Amino acid sequence: MRKSFDLFFVSSNIHKYHEAKNILDSFGIHIGFLKSDLDEIQSNSLHDIATFKATNAFSKFKKPLIIEDDGLFIDDLQGFPGPYSSYAFKTIGNKGILNLLKNNRKAKFVSIITYCDKLNLESFDGKLNGRISKTEKGKNWGYDPIFIPNNSKKTFAEIQNKNKLSHRFKALKKFSKWYLHK
Ligand code: ITT
Question: Which of 86, 130, 131, 168 is the least buried, fewest Cβ under 10 Å from its Cβ?
């Protein structure tokens, strides 16, 4: 029998869902997945993009849901790819990013989680500082093989505890606190 859920994660990206599910399970919140390629507005603000995505998803599915918008912001590239992280990954990829960098390798990952239901529209952010590695290390999705979180020598793709410290974990922790008391 199909399990029924009170909350759904809407995304085209199954990796984001798997990580969000793992994190939210640890807070006692169980989510279903609605795979959908949501329209995105072009904006320099992850928050505005996330709000648009969430309201759009709610008008499509009419169920309580969360969406996530992420960006990798690289200091030496004035914050690029930022809100364009998905497009940059699909076009120039990790090799293209590595080719653009010289000495300053500081970067941060940002996640915005937006919840939407009939009555609420709420966003929660998570930020994680780190740096871009000199070469790709380890195998995992997206920018994981080139992002080294602060206080680590290993990339996200090489560490075991990504879901305990990531930008996604931080945003979902704030969300969980709110959701469980709403
Ligand atoms: P949606 O359908 O949910 O929008 P998406 O993949 O397009 O899926 P984003 O617009 O949030 O999602 O794109 C952010 C991109 O940043 C994403 O495609 C990955 O390439 C990258 N990214 C985000 N979080 C990451 C993580 O934890 N590890 C590696 N790469 C990540």
Answer: 86
The pLDDT score that the predictor gives to residue 5 is 85
Query: Could you tell me if residue 1 is inside a domain?
Result: no
The residue whose C-alpha atom lies closest to atom 13 belonging to ligand 1 is 86
Range of the domain at 77: 7-181
Per DSSP, the three-state class of 167 is helix
Residue 165 included in any domain: yes
d(CA 149, CA 5): 33
Give the distance (Å) from ligand 1 centre to CA of residue 1.
31
Q: Judge whether 44 lies within some domain.
A: yes
CATH number at residue 54: 3.90.950.10
Any catalytic annotation for residue 69? yes
Confidence label for 131 from pLDDT (cuts 50, 70 and 90): very high
Nearest protein Cα to ligand 1, atom 15: 86
Q: What is the pLDDT of residue 127?
A: 98
- Domain assignment present for 2: no
